[in-house]
Amino acid sequence: MTGLVIWLRRTTARTMFPAMVAVTLAVLFSRSGWAWDLGHAVSWASSSTLLLGPLSAGVAAFDTWRQRGRGLRSVERSALRGWQGTLTLAVAVWTYAALAWATAMALAISISTFRYEGSGLGTWWPVLIQAPAALLGATLLGAVIGSLVRGVGAAPLAVGAVYATTAMADIVLGTRSVLAVEGATMSLVGLRPRGDVLAVTLALDLALGAAFAASVVRREHGRSRKALVSACAASLAVLACATGLVTLDAREGHLEPSTAERVCVLGDVEVCGPPEGEAIYRVAQRSLAAGISQLETAGLELGQRTYDHASAASSRAGVLSVDTALLDRDGGLDAWDVASTLSTPLLCEEFFDADPPVELLEGQWNLASWMSDVLSGAGGVAADERSAAQKTLSALERCAPESVPQWAYTSAELREAE
Amino acid sequence: MSHPLLTLDGIHHGYGARDVLRDVSCEIGPGITALIGVNGAGKSTLLSIASGGVRPRQGAVAVGGHDLLHGRARRQGLGKVAFMPQDATFPPRMTAREIVEYVDWMRGAPRSGGRARALQALDRVRLADRAESRFGSLSGGMQRRVCLAQAIVSAPEVLVLDEPSTGLDPEQRHVMVQLIGTLAGAVVLSSHVMEDVADLADRVLVLDDGAITFDGDVAGLRALAPVPEADRAAEHGFLAVLSAQRSA
Amino acid sequence: MIAALAAHRWRVCALVCGLLSVVAYLARDDVIQLPFADDPVPARMLVAMVVVAASLTPLYATFPALATTFVREPSVRAARPAGVVVLAMIGFLPAVVGSPEAGRSALVDTSLFLSLLAAGILAAVVLGDHAWFVVTGASLTVLFLEALPGAPVAAALAGMGLAPPAVAVLVASAIYAARGPRTG
Hints:
Number of domains of chain C: 1
Number of domains of chain A: 2
Largest sheet of chain A: 4 strands, mixed
Oligomer: heterotrimer
Number of helices of chain C: 8
Shape of chain C: globular
Strand content of chain A: under 5%
């Protein structure tokens, strides 16, 4: 413990800590919309490990090379706890990196909880373990490189090594969450992490960390047989976990649909979906109600009043489309999201066919473009356009591709771009 | 020797194809034992082996009866020995007290009281007033004294000092010699400075070409000199040992 | 002369930059899918970052305590950033010269390269051996931000052009020549 306290005071990571926090906050606020569901907030906040991991590795490599001179190393070789020397330093560096990550995480959870008005991380709590484990593995890799490369190149090499490890894991194993946590760039409502993939990935990070730790001890503390055995055992664990990830087909994704009971926000328009999206549905309900009113004023008759988010194919409701990043910007659903939602009054089974009917897809696109122009006041006032829109809507309400009229509508935005 | 504190038995060691130590054996008890030899004779290697920092290719090392090379006994042995390296490159940003406290903890001392023990050790080497100075800001002589303080802080039974007065000016060397003279237990030190050896050592070992070629006291070394009563007789005696070895 | 080159790691740096120049030329039109980017980024961008990190090594202090006592130090120190810039150019320029894709993308990547180089040289003056943190930290952050919708970094660099970062390299080099790297 004494060693850890001393290294916490003397590691370069202490000086770099403000920069680390700045990096995590830059990552957190580089995108918007994550605060609307806690899973997205936690996932996005953890994506800072993609930067923190390499930086932490670089600091560990730098300190291992620069701070731990020959004198200290030779003393540690004949000291009882000497084998802990570099590991203690690595843990000190990791502590600062983990604190930087925790700062962003705490902020993300606070902001999201305030908006989410809910409680509990639900199925996303494992990320709170996965991220620190990934950072520890990355830091220990840096310590290994610092003990092997005794020069100014140690730190940049360590940064590159962690980055390359994550990239290679993506190519070979199909997951980007090795020595890092891949963050979601879109809403995770209705999704949860695949427990099996998450568990194996976490085990892989821990096994990698153990292998690196044993390697550092063997390198720095004389040719310890215990360290060699530990390194071999950890390497076997790494191999087993990697095989596990391939077997689980992590390439297919690390998320799966959640099975939580759905909630509904009631009113003139009813919006339903997984419970973690309730804050979104309240906003969507108001926007959709206003949109329907505006479209009906423009002469369109809309029958559907229930919209589902992340719904099953058997649902008889319309499909809610929402971009949470735009939700942040406008305070309500973006006009395109309203149009896209109202133009999908039913989730037709035909959409899930290998070859979905082009008429339905094109009809839905034309209708959404027209609705978007009406809602934003950019056009759609011609009577023939309104008539075509009505017929298209009716066809979509009945999932009747043969009833979709021959109609091509170009939105005002596209017309301007052309 | 009845109860040696440090035992080296049949030590063989080398680097690559080069043999550095050949069948070195000795028993060392309380008092100051000086290990002298030319550069490259194997002194630093032998001291690293004696302190448990390097495992020899062959042979046995024991401290206070505990095998320093294998198993659980190694833990007990390591707790009884301390090493002062020749190269005093400690973390420059750590303070003198932090270095001593850190090494004390590394040597297995309990955390409680660590700060007090560190300050006490620094006081013994007359650096109490510089305890909170960063190591990098200390002079060479002070850095060597911090190096000595980290070795004595855990009150070891066996103290291994690799060229403790290297690079020190005459006054600093005098202080270092005085400090070493006050140490208890078995002290094994290497040195190129024959005056220090003559002042301090109860026993002298000459290491030449990987083997011990003289094992006696300072008087015995002087007796080998052409003029035993001369001022530098110990040095001349050492040279005579080397000369005899080479002509053999 | 050879000892002088070895002292500041010029030989290793030249070798690394030479190898990177081959990589830069071969990958000049390639794109790479990064772990956290939805869209692939030009390989040229990665080459720029690695070249800058590698080419800065001669700027680090080799004899911190002795350097101020060397008669030749002021003149050699002035030449050092020039040498670094030359090596960095050797490493990076094959990625943009002769590329059929030369245009906005090459301009943006060259602007990034020069900006990182200026930041790295200045970091060596201010932070000494810790300069690597600035270069790698900035590189990783740029890669991350570049993955955002609208590629804000590329947009900012395109708007800036080449002149400001080129001037920044000159200014940073002049500061290095005057002050040298931080020691300790």
